[in-house]
């Protein structure tokens, strides 16, 4: 067996990790991986049934998966693979997975409670994104096994579910084998990550009837359109010999393409459109009902993606997805990383210190205007970094401008530095001056002056 040896980046190697390594002549640590060592490489590729599916096919597959003596899930998983091509079904799971895939994450130092930026950078790579995408498929198809293919790049692949016997912890190389590989021993425990519970069949098991009925309705609609979508074209002729009738038939066939024909004398053409104008609604309504029943188990409703809902209703359904369903997905995934992925990475030499916890920090969304309002009010009481303000709000800030506020004016037009004039106390009548002798009082002005 040919041996393939490769050296990972030096900064990804923990100096104390020796498991799975060999050493070259100069003492540089290397990982060793043998061709054919992976379980996936040993599994035999077999036939899958891609014929049209009916409800009885699903019941038989479910009965086989739940069999106590000889459980097999390959029929159910083949059914999943065939039906997951539905466009509406795919869009719902893309939306649900995106609520977790696009969320920020951190690794926290348990001793200080601070973010370990160096360790977090190890996970901010494509390998972790791909690992997350594969692990989240447990919600779609149930119990999942991820096998580590390359310890240096942390490449994982999904073990074909049709070959996995979860209750026995065995992987069979052929779906009908009695015995297989125990993936909990023999060194495979350092390469295999179990995701989900062994009895989990995934949400697809609950949605399969809707997917089958929807596909059958679309097929029936296509047959209906083929028969009744085009108007019926008939010809009435006085000719009776076979030669003229055969020629007329050829002209009618050509008429459907060219919309013109030269007909023999005594022949008339009649175009009869289909009388039932609303018959298509039978299929359309069934397809829409199936779509709504598909959406509810996946994203918790229909108004987050379908047309015709109001903005307030869509926002409520979106919050249900983000705050409830996706929040649970993130919690379960954080358990997977902390309990299984990080210990496995330490086993293969990745420099992850002890007492590090993977978390999705709780956050909330603020508009830029609301954020600026909070910062602007905080500037009155705190010294906030100018560089941070410039970076956060994407505005060039050269220096802090000194703002001299206009001094307020007191009542009566007196500035703060001036002495106020003597004024009579409030609520007291003004003092009248005594009259001067020999001086008549000035008469009051007339109303008409």
Automatic annotation (TrEMBL):
InterPro entries: Portal_Mu (IPR009279). This is Uncharacterized protein DUF935. Residues 301-320, 409-449 are annotated as: Disordered. Residues 304-313 have a biased composition (Polar residues). Pfam families: Portal_Mu (PF06074). It comes from Mucilaginibacter gracilis. The lineage of its organism: Bacteria, Pseudomonadati, Bacteroidota, Sphingobacteriia, Sphingobacteriales.
């Amino acid at each position: 067996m040919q041996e393939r040896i490769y050296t990972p980046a030096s900064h990804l190697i923990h100096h104390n990790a020796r498991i799975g390594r060999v050493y070259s002549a100069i003492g540089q640590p290397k990982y060793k991986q043998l061709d054919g060592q992976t379980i996936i490489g040993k599994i035999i590729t077999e036939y899958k049934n891609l014929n049209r599916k009916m409800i009885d096919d699903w019941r038989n597959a479910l009965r086989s998966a739940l069999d106590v003596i000889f459980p097999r899930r390959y029929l159910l998983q083949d059914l999943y693979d065939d039906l997951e091509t539905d466009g509406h079904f795919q869009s719902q799971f893309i939306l649900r997975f995106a609520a977790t895939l696009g969320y920020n994450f951190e690794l926290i130092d348990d001793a200080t409670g601070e973010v370990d930026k160096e360790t977090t950078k190890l996970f901010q790579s494509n390998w972790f994104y791909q690992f997350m995408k594969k692990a989240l498929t447990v919600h779609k198809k149930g119990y999942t096994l991820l096998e580590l293919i390359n310890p240096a790049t942390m490449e994982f692949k999904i073990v074909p579910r049709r070959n996995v016997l979860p209750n026995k912890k065995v992987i069979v190389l052929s779906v009908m084998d009695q015995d297989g590989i125990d993936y909990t021993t023999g060194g495979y425990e350092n390469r295999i990550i179990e995701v989900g519970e062994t009895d989990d069949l995934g949400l697809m098991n609950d949605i399969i009837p809707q997917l089958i009925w929807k596909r059958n309705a679309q097929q029936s609609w296509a047959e209906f359109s083929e028969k009744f979508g085009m108007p019926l074209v008939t010809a009435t002729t006085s000719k009776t010999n076979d030669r003229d009738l055969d020629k007329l038939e050829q002209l009618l066939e050509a008429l459907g393409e060219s919309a013109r024909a030269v007909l023999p004398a005594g022949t008339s053409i009649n175009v009869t459109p289909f009388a039932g104008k609303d018959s298509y609604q039978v299929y359309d309504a069934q397809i829409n009902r199936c779509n709504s029943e598909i959406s509810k188990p996946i994203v918790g409703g229909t108004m987050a993606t379908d047309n015709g809902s109001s903005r307030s209703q869509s926002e409520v359904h979106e919050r249900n997805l983000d705050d409830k369903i996706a929040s649970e997905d993130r919690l379960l995934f954080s358990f997977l990383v902390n309990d299984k992925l990080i210990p496995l990475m330490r086993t293969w030499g990745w420099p992850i210190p002890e007492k590090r916890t993977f978390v999705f920090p709780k956050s909330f969304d603020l508009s830029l205007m609301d954020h600026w309002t909070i910062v602007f009010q905080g500037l009155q009481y705190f010294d906030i970094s100018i560089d941070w303000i410039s970076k956060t709000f994407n505005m060039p800030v050269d220096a802090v401008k000194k703002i001299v506020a206009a001094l307020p004016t007191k009542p009566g037009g007196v500035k703060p530095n001036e002495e106020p004039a003597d004024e009579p106390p409030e609520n007291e009548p003004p003092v009248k001056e005594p009259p001067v002798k020999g001086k008549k009082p000035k008469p009051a002005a007339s109303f008409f002056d």
